[in-house]
Specification:
Length: about 300
Amino acid sequence: MGGINFLRELTYQYLRLTHPEIAKLKGDSLTQGTSLNREDSFVKNYKSSKPSGFNRQKAYLLKLEKVPDGEFGLIHGMMPVSQLKQVCHRYGVSINDYLVACFVWSVYQECFHGMPNDMPVRVAVPVNLRPYFDSVTTKNFFVMISAEFRPQNSSYTFEEVLRIVTDSINSQISKEHLEDLFSYSVSNQKNILMRPVPLFIKNLAMKAVYTQSALANTTTITNIGNIKVEPEYEPYITGFYSFIPMSKGQPMKGTICSYKDTLVFTFSSILADTMIQRSFFKKLVNYGVEVTIETNGEYYD
């Protein structure tokens, strides 16, 4: 939220400098909707010490050929929000659930070839906590849940995968469960026995916990949400997209954001093959969603 606020205000300022007529109309101050709140909402909403609710079991990892060191592939799929909503309405699911399920389906088809596997496909999904706890802080305030699909039988249909993924996500989306997730982390922060421990030991412990958490997920898909700008600036802004970097065990990630009637799903990847991305966007097209593809050129011969 803080990053989006900063990007939006910075863009506004550049536009005011370039177009004096906007500056005359809007002035030179921050917009009303931009929060400067720096509250630590984790600590404010912490209730009591809870056991860890994070999944630590290893997930299926994408161990495929990688692009040369220092290179990085981006594929943007731009699609009408209205068309995507029609498909999601047909299944009674949210856009976020549907797109996560499309990714899981693509891995199931391209990597498992529709066969059973002992390792689950697990997608880390960040959940914005602000709506649940009435917060407007610009500091981080989210937790990670995991959408899980474990192919125990053969020949799952897409509809079955969609239902399993949606049920997995929905079972974790409640204020009580989300509170349990971050209360565990805050309880460690408040533990007075931890305070005398040297910082380098804490850092080593945190690195170990992070690695374990990263390997418990096949990928991460984050939804930035619908980005809105003030009407005076809309004629000068064609769209937004976002992407996130790789982490240990996750050579491919996805980011969702939308502006007006255009949603952009961006794959960031260090894998040389694009079979998962192709399968993902093909699934959308097959369900009637028009997708326009742009890349950063990494996959061109």
